[in-house]
Amino acid sequence: MLDIDQYAYSNNLRSIHPVEKTIFALLTMIICLAANSIITSLAIILLMAGVVIFGAKIPRQFFIKLILIPISFLLISTITIVISISKEASSFLYYLSLWGWKIGIQMENIIFAINLFLKSLGTVSCLYFLALTTPMIEIISVLRKLKVPRIFIELMSLIYRFIFVLLDTANLIRTSQLSRLGYSNFKRSCQSLSKLISNLFIRAYYRAKGLLTTLLARGYEGEIRVLEPEYEFSKKNLAIIFLVEVSLILITVYIGGDQFVIINT
Amino acid sequence: MSSSILEAEDIIFSYPDGTKALDGLSISIEEGKKVAILGANGAGKSTLFLHFNGILQPDQGSIKFKGETVKYNKRALKELRKNVGIVFQDPDMQLFSSSVFQEISFGPLNLGLSEEEVRARVNEAMKVTGITELKDRPTHLLSYGQKKRISIADILAMKPQAIIFDEPTVWLDPRHSNEIIDFFDEINNQGITVILSTHDVNLAYSWADYVYIFAEGKIIGEGVPSDIFQDKELLMNADLTQPWIVEVYNELVQKNILASDFPIPDSKRELFSLL
Description:
The structure holds 2 protein chains of 2 kinds. By secondary structure, chain A is mainly alpha-helical. Chain A is 71% helix and 6% strand. In chain A, helix 2 packs antiparallel against helix 5 (107-133). Chain A is extended, with a radius of gyration of 25 Å. In chain B, 43% of the residues are buried. In chain B, the strands form 2 sheets. A 6-stranded mixed sheet of chain B has the order 6-7-8-3-9-10, sandwiched between helices. A 4-stranded antiparallel sheet of chain B has the order 2-1-4-5, with helices on one face. Chain B contains 12 helices and 10 strands. Chain B is globular.
C-alpha cells in the first residue's frame, strides 16, 4: 500500500490533470462493466497494463505483483461458478455422478466464468491505473470538485495525513520495544504488540488534541478551507481519452460480439 | 519611543488537571525586537505562547496586544490570531494536510482573503522559505527540516506582526539551525517581532536583543544578553548555564589577559578578533 502511494507521487504521468486521469479510469471502467465481451475486457486489461508500465513507467514486476493479488480471489470465486449440479447429464462437458446427481462443468458456465473473471480484472486494472498515477490528495481534490460533502472531504484528507503520522509513531514504538527484546518470544511478542496498540490509541488522542490547538492558532473556525495548486486541462489528452474510449466501444460492437449488458438485459 | 506589542499582566493559569503552569507572570515584549525566552522544560513557555494567541485564557490577569486588552469573542480572536502567529515545535503536529500547497493556504483563507491573494501569499511564503520545489510532494515523504520550513511558511503566509517560534532549533542539524537563525534576522528586518523559546543559551546570547528567563511559571529575570548571562545564580535557578563566550571572556579577564573594563564580545567572531 505504501509502495502504491510512493509511485502515485513519482510516476511519469504525475503532472497530468487529475480530472483527466479520473475520467479516463472511470469511463474505461464503465465500458468494461457494460460490455459483455471477453475481447473488450482483454483489450482493457492490456491497455491499462500498457499505460501503467510504459506511460507511467511503473516497474513491470510491481504491476504484475499487484494484478496477482485479485487473481487469487477471482479464481476461487469463479470456480464456484464453473461447477454446477444437475440431474440432466446432456449439458455437461465432464461430470461425476453421486447418488443420481451430476456434478460437473458446463460449456455455458465456463464462458460465463471467463467473462466475469476478465471483466473483474479489467475493472481492477482501471482502479490500479488511478491509484498508481494519481496521489490520494488529488483524488480527494477531484471529489471536492464533484461537490462531495465537505465533511467527507475533510475526514478523508485528515485520515490520509494521519495514517502516516501514526505509522511513524508505531514504527518508533516497535523499534524501541525491539531494542529491549520486546519480541524475543511468542508471549513477549503478544504483550508488546498489545502495549503498542494501546499506546497508539492514546497518542492518536493527543495528536488530535494537539492538531486542534495548532489549527485554532491559525484561525480555524470549524471548517478546513484549502486551495489546490492549479492544473491546466490539456485538449490533446482529452482528445486521446475520447479516441481510446470510442475505439473500445467500436471493438465491442464489431469484434466483441456487439453485446452490452445494458442493452441485452 | 518603543512600544510593546505583547504584554501579560499578572497572569495565573492552571490546567484542568491542577498543574499551575503560570503563576503571576508579567511580561512586556517590545515591538520589532528579537526576543529569546529561556527556561527549563515545563517552565511554562509554551503555555504563555498559547495565551498570546488566544488559545488559552488566563484564570486571572490579562493579555494585551499593542496596549489593548485581548477580548475572547470570535472577531477579536480572529484579529489576534491574524497578528500573532505561532510556529509549533513539532511540525507533524501542525501539518494537517498531505499537500504542501493546501497546508499553507489554510491560514490565509481563514483570514477571509480572496483566492488570488491567497495564491500569491502561498507562493511568496514558499519562495521565502525555499520550499517551492516541494510543492508537489506529499508532506509524509519530507524530512524533518523540510516539514519545519513548511510549518514556518504556514504562518508567514498569514503576514502576522509577531511570530512566536516554540523551540525552533530542536532536532535540527547545525547547518539548518544556522539557516533558520539567519532567516529570523531576515524577517525581523522586515519589521516582524520575532519571539523564540529555546534552551540554547549560546543561541540566545548571540542572537537576541532582549532575553527573558523563565522558571516555574514566572519571569525570574530579564535584560539584554550581556547583562543577564553574567548572573550565574539566576541562570542556575532556571536550570541554565552560561554561554561559552561569556565563560571564556570571564576566564580571560580573571587571568588578566583582558582588561576588566573591556566590553563583552557578543559573538564568536568578536571574541576571536580579541585574541
